Amino acid sequence: MASWAETKGLNGTAKFMYAHSDEERFHMLKLIKFVNERGGVAVVPSIPEPPREYDSLERVFELLLEHEVGVSESINNVVDACLQEKDYSTHNFMQWYVSEQLEEEALARSILDKLRLIGGDKGG
């Protein structure tokens, strides 16, 4: 998404997406470290290659929101498993991710709302 935005002259969006990617990597590394420090072996699965083209900037942020909602669902599943297993240490650790996802979804929705408000008006 960042690369697409950059090649379309959407430098602000590209900067946002590159920074967002760095933040997501930090979140992943925090989780890996948590697993490894507790005697587990964290494995990072491969992910499908993202699209190279997008129909619009609005579509980019729709996909970002869909992704964040999916991540929230996955985190909630982990939290549920923690409670089922009475793993309160991991449950406590995961609360940071629960809070972070609320922020991530709110940010994506806010940007998407603004894009929809502007619509096709290139003057903004």
Number of helices: 4
- Portion of residues in beta strands equals under 5%
User: Can you tell me the residue ranges where pLDDT is under 50 for at least 5 consecutive residues?
Assistant: none
Total beta strand runs: 0
Radius of gyration, whole Å: 17 Å
Structural class: mainly alpha
What's the helical proportion of residues? over 70%
* Average pLDDT taken over every residue: 95
General form? elongated
Give the CA-CA distance, first to last residue: 21 Å
Largest sheet: none
Helix and strand sequence: HHHH
Fold and architecture overview:
This protein is mainly α and 124 residues long. The chain has 4 helices and no strands. Helix 3 runs antiparallel to helix 4.
Blueprint of the fold:
Elements: H1 2-7, H2 11-37, H3 57-85, H4 88-118
Helix pairs in contact: 3-4
For the structure shown, list the relevant keywords.
124 residues; single chain; 4 helices; mainly alpha
